[in-house]
Design goal:
Number of helices: 11
Order of helices and strands: HHEEEEEHHEEHHEEEHEHHHEHEEEE
CATH topology of the largest domain: Rossmann fold
Oligomer: single chain
Radius of gyration: 21 Å
Helix content: 25-40%
Structural class: alpha/beta
CATH superfamily of the largest domain: von Willebrand factor, type A domain
CATH architecture of the largest domain: 3-Layer(aba) Sandwich
Strand order of the largest sheet: 7-6-5-10-11-12
Number of domains: 2
CATH class of the largest domain: Alpha Beta
Shape: globular
Length: 407
């Protein structure tokens, strides 16, 4: 197990603090990020940062104040406890997603005890997503051919998906790329042109590192913090504070992660990353690209690390990474999609779009629970409203745990 640095102790402290406002529907937790003035934007721009013709930054609207608050509103009220649970309901046999449900169709149980649903949002409510892309030298070897690097196979459908997914002015998205550290290429924006701009930056740039620190990237995306620009070659400046999905209030939200699942040298370990994901209340939809690598190099993979000059992970590491991705998706109420062939990504992203567009958001107050223990969450559904839960016919995909603070 890797030792925690003092900085990571602080990060984990933030995790448990945000748990007290686990559903940002009504919690008072606020982002510390402030939209920079035009002069600051120019000053903070990294080398290679995309600009529109004429040198002006793309028109990017910040999240409205009721979603991410001002810096002076940083105090979190411990009495404003709310656990957020996003849920998708579908038929067991047909896999058809069920729409048109209302608050009274759902029931939430914590450790077997039913809780009152105090917050409810339908799929028509605004949504905020974070697209997280592995952008390491390994990603260039995942798929691809002699004419173009492997990352193109991911970037092209991802860019098309995200620009079409955003429905201005209510939907927001951010893009984060990571190798040894995570780089927020754009904070939350409702401008599809801004998304295209930052994706184009990844096309023109080259991965700077062979490392892929997934767990640290998840911590940044979910809980917020200060990113780092080393994901882009020849860029060393620190980026601005990133708000994090846990601080987004009053809307549905999700994280879309496209990666192999490999983690090389993160400052936090798998157990910590798993707990952060459980506590954030954000469903994680994952596209696993490890099978693309297996397809190309499967015959060369040893059981342990040491592939191709001892610079790439072995078969066991890939299998462990896939298991970790499955766990993150399942426990947060998201979904895991492994892809093996180049043409699969578009269809998978369409499936994720359907899930996100039919995602209900529920919230409940667990009371002043401060036992430091993990609590089991179960969501049940009564589709036809006859007073009987339809567990045999329908599946509710939702988060499974939250960890209460201690003391």
């Amino acid at each position: 197990m890797k030792a925690f640095t003092a900085r990571r102790h602080i990060a984990l402290g933030i995790v448990f603090t945000f748990l007290l406002a686990a559903c940002p529907f009504t919690a008072t937790a606020q982002s510390r990020r402030q939209q920079p003035a035009p002069s600051q934007q120019k000053k903070n721009r990294r080398d290679g940062q995309p600009q529109q013709q004429g040198g002006n930054q793309p028109n990017q609207e910040p999240l409205p104040p009721d979603v991410v608050g001002s810096p002076q509103d940083e105090v979190i009220s411990v009495r404003s406890t709310l656990v957020n649970v996003d849920a998708v309901v579908y038929n067991k046999k047909t896999r058809q997603i069920i729409t048109g449900l209302k608050r009274e169709n759902f029931a939430i149980f914590e450790d077997g005890v039913q809780k009152e649903i105090t917050n409810f949002s339908t799929p028509e409510a605004p949504i905020t997503v974070a697209l997280v892309l592995e952008y390491s030298k390994l990603s260039d070897r995942v798929g691809g051919d002699m004419f173009e690097p492997g990352r193109y196979e991911v970037l092209k459908p991802a860019a098309m998906f995200l620009t079409q997914f955003i429905q201005p002015p209510n939907d927001y998205a951010s893009v984060i790329a990571y190798d040894s550290r995570a780089t927020p290429l754009t904070d939350f924006t409702n401008d599809p042109n801004r998304i295209n701009t930052v994706i184009s930056l990844l096309f023109r740039s080259y991965p700077a590192s062979s490392e892929a620190n997934l767990f640290d990237a998840m911590n940044l995306v979910l809980m917020g913090g200060r990113g780092d620009a080393v994901v882009l070659d020849n860029s060393k400046e620190r980026t601005a504070e990133y708000a994090g999905l846990a601080s987004v209030q009053g809307r549905r939200k999700a994280m879309i992660l496209i990666c192999t699942g490999i983690d090389t040298f993160s400052k936090i370990n798998y157990g910590n990353a798993r707990k952060i994901a459980q506590n954030a209340g954000v469903p994680i939809y994952i596209i696993g690209t490890g099978n693309l690598f297996f397809k190309k190099y499967g015959d060369q993979l040893p059981a342990e690390d040491g592939l191709l000059g001892s610079t790439q992970p072995g078969r066991m590491t890939f299998l462990q990474a896939q298991n970790a991705l499955k766990t993150f998706a399942k426990e947060t109420g998201g979904a895991y999609f492994p892809v093996t062939f180049d043409g699969e990504l578009g269809g998978v992203l369409s499936s994720i779009n359907a899930l996100l567009r039919n995602q209900y958001s529920l919230g409940y107050n667990p009371g002043d629970v401060r036992d430091g223990k993990q609590h089991k969450i179960v969501v049940r559904v009564d589709v036809n409203g006859d007073g009987q839960y339809d567990d045999k016919e329908f599946i509710v995909n939702s988060r499974q745990f939250y960890n209460a603070p201690k003391g």
